[in-house]
C-alpha cells in the first residue's frame, strides 16, 4: 500500500485518531484537524458525558492499533447494574455470564489523550483550534478558522474524512448533494452531569465495580466510577412536563426533587445545586444518513455518520468498530476508495441503524424496567439459558456488548429470544420451575449457532 | 380580527397565495414573495410535474376563498384508472362509487395563475424574482436577492410563513434551532416528463376522462389529460440498475425501451427522444420535520413542512388542507399565534405523516398491483361493500380522496378494512360468491360510522 495521497481527517476526538493511526501504519499520509485546543495543555471539558463504557468492540479496535495496554490502566470494570430503590435498597444485576463479561468505565478525556499521544508517536500531526467552517466537496477543500487567532486556512487533499461528531461540519456539505438522505431526531429528554466526590479516604463512596442506576419510571439518575475516586453522574429528565428540567429552576426545586426521588444519592452530593447550575442541560440526538461517502473524495465516519443516544453504551464502541470494518475492506481492496466506501456503507449501515434503534429501546429498560422484579427474573433466566445453551442462546445485551456479531444480527436474534423467554417465563415465578424440555425445543427450533466475528 | 401586524409569506406557489387570500379576508396585512418571475408575463416551466390531481380537500379550500368557480373551468375530471397492458389491452378501474367521485387533472401553472390573480384582486402584493437567501429567526428578517437585478433586500415583519416548497429556504434557519427534528428521504426512483400531443382534430389521443397507467412491476408510465388536448406523461424509473434512467443514454436506448415496454404509448409520441432529452430527471423526496413553528415568529406550511411523493395525488390537496386547518384555529383563537401554531402542529402532523407514508405505499399499488387481476377483483369487492355499508365501509382511496376525514383515520381504518377484505376475498373468485353474512359481521364488529370533517 504505497499510495502517498494525502488524507485529511476532521475531528481528533475518538474515531479520528484511532483511524489515523491505522491508516498511517498502512503507509498512508494522514493529518488530523481538531476544533478544540490541545486538552493536554489546556483544561477543557471534553464537551460531553465525562465517562464512557468501553466494551468488546472498542477494545478489539484498540488492541489492533496496539494502544490497549495504555488504556487498560485507566479503566474501571463494572460487573453489573446496581439499582437504587427509593427506600435505598440495593439490587445487583450482573451484565454478563461471569467475571470476564464486564463493561469498562473510562474517562472520555483520558481516552482521547491516550489516542492523541499514540497518534503523535506515529508521526501524525494534529492541528488544534481548527474549526471547520465549510467543506467544498467538488474542490476537496476544507476551510478552517483558528479559534484562537481567527486565522483562516484552506486544506486541499485527496480524501477528506469527517470524524467530527454528531453535529459534523463536514456532513453539512453532503446535504447539498443530490439525493442525500438525512434524519436528525431529538429525544424529549435532556441530561445534566453531576458528581459524587470520594469519601474522606479518597475511595469511592459506593460500590466501585458497578454502574449505579436510580430507575424512576419516566426518568433516572446513573453513576459511573472514575479512577480518581469520584463518580460521574448523569440525570436524565424530560425537558418539559411533570418531573422535568423545566420545573427545576432554583436551589430549593432541586433539593426538593432529589429528596423526593434520590435521597441516598443526594446524601453523597454536598455540592448538588452548585453542580446542577454549573452545567448546561444536554440534548440527545439520533442521526441517520446515507450515503456516507462521495466518490473517492469524502467519507463520514462515527457519530458524523450515525449519532446514537447513549443508553446502550455503544456510541464509542460502534465508532471504533466502523474503523475495524473500514480497515478490513481497505486491506481487501487496497486504497480503491470508491469501492471500499461503497462496500463499507453496504455492510455497515444496517448495523448502525440497528444499534441506533436498540439504544433508544434500552432507555426504557434502564429508567423503568430494571426496577421491576419480573424483568430481573427474566434476566436471570436469560443467563441460565445461556449457560445451558452456550453459543446458541446468547442474551442480546451480551451479543451487543461482549461479542462482535453484527448489531443487526443481535437485534433480530434478540427478538426471537424475547419470544422464547416470554413463553418460558410467563407461566412461572421461580427459576426452579423452568420447563427445560420446552426450552430445549424452542432454542433448537428457533436459533442457529451464533457466528461471532 | 383587527390586528394590523405584517405577515410575510415566502413562496407564491399554491398554498402561499391561497393562505394569503384567507388572511387578507380576515383583515390581516400580508405580502407574498416569489423566487420565480411572474409566469403570466414570462413563459417558464412551473418547475415540477405539469399536472396535478385536485380532489375534495383541495376543492373545499378553493371554495372557501371563492376561487372555485374560476378553477372549475380549467379542470378535466378523471373517473378512474385506465390500465394499459403490454399487448395494448385496456382495463378501466373506477376511482369512486359513482360519477360524483372523480379526481381532477389541472395544470399546475393554470392553477397558480388563477390563485395569483385572485390574490392580487384582494389587494395583495406579490414580489417576483425574489430569492430567499437566508432567514434570521431571531431578527424576524428575511433576506432576498432579486434574480434579475441581483439587488438585495431585507424584509422585516411580525410573522414569516415559509410556503416555499420541499427545499424550503425558510426551513434552513429552523435547522439551527435547538432540537429541531428533521428528515429528508429520497426515493431510488426518478421521474421524467413527456408529452402525448393531440390528434390532428385537436382532441385527446386516448380516453380523456381517465388517468392512464402503464404498470410494469418495478416501473411505470402515467398520463393525465390537459385542456389543450395533450396528455402530460410521467415516466417513473429507478435511477440505477435494471430498467433504469442510467441505462437510457441515447436515442436508440429510449426507442428500444419504449418499444419493449410501452409500444402503444410510443405510437402516440412522435417526439419521444427529443422530449426525453429536453427535460431533466427529477428526484422525489419525503420531508418530515417538527416543530413547524417558532413562537409567534415563523411557521412552515405545505411542502416546506411535509413534502410527500406524488403517488396518492395529495401533495396539493394536503397543502390546501393545511390552510383549512390553520384558518379554523385562527378563527377559534384569534391571532394568538403561539397557541394557533402549537395547536396546528399538534392536530396536523399526525395526518401529514400518515399521507406521507400512504403516498409511498401507493407507488407499489400504481406501478405493480393495478396490473393484477386479483387486486382489481378486490377493488370491485371494496366498492360493493361500500354500496352495502355506506358511511361504514369506505375504501381508503375514497376516504383520502373524496372525504375530508383526517388522513390518520383513513390510514388506520384502511388497515382494518384490508384485513376484512382479505378474509372475504381470499376464498372466492367471483363477487357472486361473497359471504354477505360474514361481511356484515366483520364490518359491524370492526368499524364505527365514519365521521367526516
TrEMBL record, chains A, B:
Keyword hit for Amino-acid biosynthesis: no
Keywords: FAD, Flavoprotein, Monooxygenase, NADP, Oxidoreductase, Pyridine nucleotide biosynthesis
Catalytic activity as recorded in UniProt: L-kynurenine + NADPH + O2 + H(+) = 3-hydroxy-L-kynurenine + NADP(+) + H2O
Cofactor: FAD
Record's keyword annotation contains Plastid: no
Coiled coil location: none
GO biological process: anthranilate metabolic process; kynurenine metabolic process; L-tryptophan catabolic process; NAD+ biosynthetic process; quinolinate biosynthetic process
Pathways involved: Cofactor biosynthesis; NAD(+) biosynthesis; quinolinate from L-kynurenine: step 1/3
Family annotation (InterPro entries): FAD-bd, FAD/NAD-bd_sf, Kynurenine_monooxygenase
EC number: 1.14.13.9
Domain of life of the organism encoding this protein: Bacteria
Domain FAD-binding as annotated: residue spans: 6-326
GO molecular function, one term: FAD binding
Protein family (similarity comment): Belongs to the aromatic-ring hydroxylase family. KMO subfamily.
Function summary: Catalyzes the hydroxylation of L-kynurenine (L-Kyn) to form 3-hydroxy-L-kynurenine (L-3OHKyn). Required for synthesis of quinolinic acid.
PANTHER family named in the record: KYNURENINE 3-MONOOXYGENASE
Protein name: Kynurenine 3-monooxygenase
Naturally occurring in which organism (per UniProt): Koribacter versatilis (strain Ellin345)
Amino acid at each position: 500500500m504505497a499510495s502517498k495521497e494525502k488524507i485529511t481527517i476532521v475531528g481528533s476526538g475518538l474515531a479520528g485518531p484511532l483511524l489515523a493511526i491505522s491508516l498511517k501504519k498502512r503507509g498512508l499520509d494522514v493529518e488530523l484537524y481538531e476544533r478544540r485546543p490541545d486538552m493536554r495543555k489546556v483544561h477543557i471539558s471534553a464537551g460531553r458525558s465525562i465517562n464512557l463504557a468501553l466494551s468488546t468492540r472498542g477494545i478489539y479496535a484498540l488492541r489492533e492499533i496496539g494502544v490497549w495496554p495504555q488504556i487498560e490502566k485507566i479503566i474501571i470494570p463494572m460487573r453489573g447494574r446496581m439499582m437504587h430503590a427509593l427506600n435505598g435498597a440495593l439490587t445487583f444485576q450482573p451484565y454478563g455470564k461471569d467475571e470476564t463479561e464486564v463493561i469498562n468505565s473510562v474517562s472520555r478525556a483520558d481516552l482521547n489523550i491516550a489516542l492523541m499521544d499514540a497518534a503523535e508517536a506515529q508521526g501524525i500531526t494534529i492541528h488544534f483550534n481548527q474549526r471547520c467552517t465549510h467543506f467544498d466537496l467538488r474542490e476537496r477543500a476544507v476551510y478552517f478558522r483558528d479559534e484562537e487567532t481567527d486565522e483562516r486556512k484552506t486544506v486541499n487533499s485527496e480524501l477528506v474524512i469527517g470524524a467530527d461528531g454528531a453535529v459534523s461540519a463536514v456532513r453539512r456539505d453532503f446535504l447539498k448533494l443530490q439525493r442525500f438522505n438525512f434524519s436528525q431526531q431529538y429525544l424529549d429528554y435532556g441530561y445534566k452531569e453531576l458528581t459524587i466526590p470520594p469519601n474522606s479516604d479518597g475511595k469511592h463512596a459506593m460500590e466501585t465495580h458497578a454502574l449505579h442506576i436510580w430507575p424512576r419510571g419516566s426518568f433516572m439518575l446513573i453513576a459511573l466510577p472514575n479512577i480518581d475516586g469520584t463518580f460521574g453522574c448523569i440525570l436524565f429528565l424530560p425537558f418539559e412536563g411533570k418531573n422535568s428540567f423545566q420545573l427545576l429552576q432554583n436551589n430549593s426545586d432541586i433539593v426538593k426533587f432529589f429528596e423526593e426521588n434520590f435521597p441516598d444519592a443526594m446524601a453523597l452530593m454536598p455540592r448538588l445545586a452548585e453542580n446542577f447550575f454549573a452545567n448546561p442541560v444536554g440534548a440527545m440526538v439520533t442521526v441517520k444518513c446515507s450515503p456516507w461517502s462521495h466518490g473517492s473524495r469524502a467519507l463520514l465516519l462515527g457519530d458524523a455518520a450515525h449519532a446514537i443516544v447513549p443508553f446502550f453504551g455503544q456510541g464509542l464502541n460502534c465508532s471504533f468498530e466502523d474503523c475495524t470494518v473500514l480497515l478490513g475492506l481497505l486491506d481487501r481492496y487496497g486504497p480503491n476508495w470508491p469501492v471500499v466506501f461503497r462496500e463499507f456503507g453496504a455492510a455497515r449501515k444496517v448495523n448502525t441503524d440497528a444499534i441506533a434503534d436498540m439504544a433508544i429501546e434500552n432507555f426504557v429498560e434502564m429508567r423503568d424496567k430494571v426496577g421491576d422484579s419480573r424483568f430481573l427474573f427474566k434476566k436471570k433466566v436469560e443467563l441460565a439459558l445461556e449457560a445451558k445453551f452456550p453459543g446458541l442462546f446468547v442474551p442480546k445485551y451480551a451479543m451487543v456488548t461482549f461479542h462482535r456479531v453484527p448489531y443487526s444480527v443481535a437485534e433480530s436474534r434478540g427478538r426471537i429470544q424475547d419470544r422464547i423467554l416470554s413463553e418460558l417465563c410467563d407461566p412461572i415465578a421461580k427459576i426452579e420451575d423452568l420447563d427445560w424440555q420446552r426450552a430445549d425445543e424452542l432454542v433448537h427450533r428457533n436459533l442457529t449457532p451464533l457466528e461471532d466475528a
